[in-house]
Amino acid sequence: MRILVATDAWHPQINGVVRTLTTLAKAVRKRGASIEFLTPDGFPSFELPTYPGMRCAIPGPREIARRIEAIAPDAIHIATEGPIGHMVRRFCIKRGLPFTTSYTTRFPEYISARLPIPESWSYAVLRRFHNASTVTMVSTKSMTEDLESRGFTNIGMWTRGVDTELFRPDRAVDIGLPRPIFMTVGRVAVEKNIDAFLSLDLPGSKAVIGRGPEEERLRRQYPDAKFFGSLSDENLASHLAAADVFVFPSRTDTYGVVQLEALACGVPVAAYPVTGPLDVIADNPIGALNEDLRAACLDALKMSKQACRDFALTRSWDNSAKQFIGNVSKVVTDTFAASRAA
Prior knowledge:
This protein is of the alpha/beta class.
């Protein structure tokens, strides 16, 4: 099966969507499928005013059609709701082709954090976008319940996995910080709520891995914190494994793959009891969830590193790929073959 995945998020961006899609592409091969990506590469683009440093593609309908027809997919999956996602959705509807989508980012909350736009307006746009698909894939049960309560339909489960060969405890290196080391990883932006972490009164050290529009301000405001910037996969794994606690201060992430990466390194998680951490950590003794983030950080120090590693070993990308292919298979019809022959 040849699957086309359309995504507005792509390299050189470093985020959960990009990491998930690139890892998924490797995992589906073991199940006899292949993924071809339709990305912003090659399209004109502009910088997003609310996301400094991030560029948005300007895809034309003819080029979108040409790329899709050149790939000649058996199924089409739209991973993001940006310009490429919308243009591919338009192509599918115009041609009468079924498609799947995935809901991976809480854009209504992200947008309202920057602009005076009610979340209900953004959810109305997203509901219209996703309800045209055969399956809208989400990563957790709580997200399923949340979207269904907002009128989203045809929701299917697509959980995430972790590369336990790349992320493992024995990769830890000396990063030269006093212990205990509390670390967060992700885009340094307002929706990640990093202030809530860096403002805590904690022993030892605080470290941040990632870049983003809030980085310069946070560096000035919290001079005692260590900012490592963006790191390659191997360096990320070695730095993450060096931490004592992984702090996940976001209140808006739908999952947070980096939580699994930390656990695979034997590092317990401290977070708020919100969607994402609740679904990953639940009642397992691998992290601490508390509205008092400082208390969660200190409680996480007591967690077993081996328990964290053992939990991560049960979250394989093979199972994630199996779920993804199962959802996508629902749109593999003779319509695609007829479209290619036309």
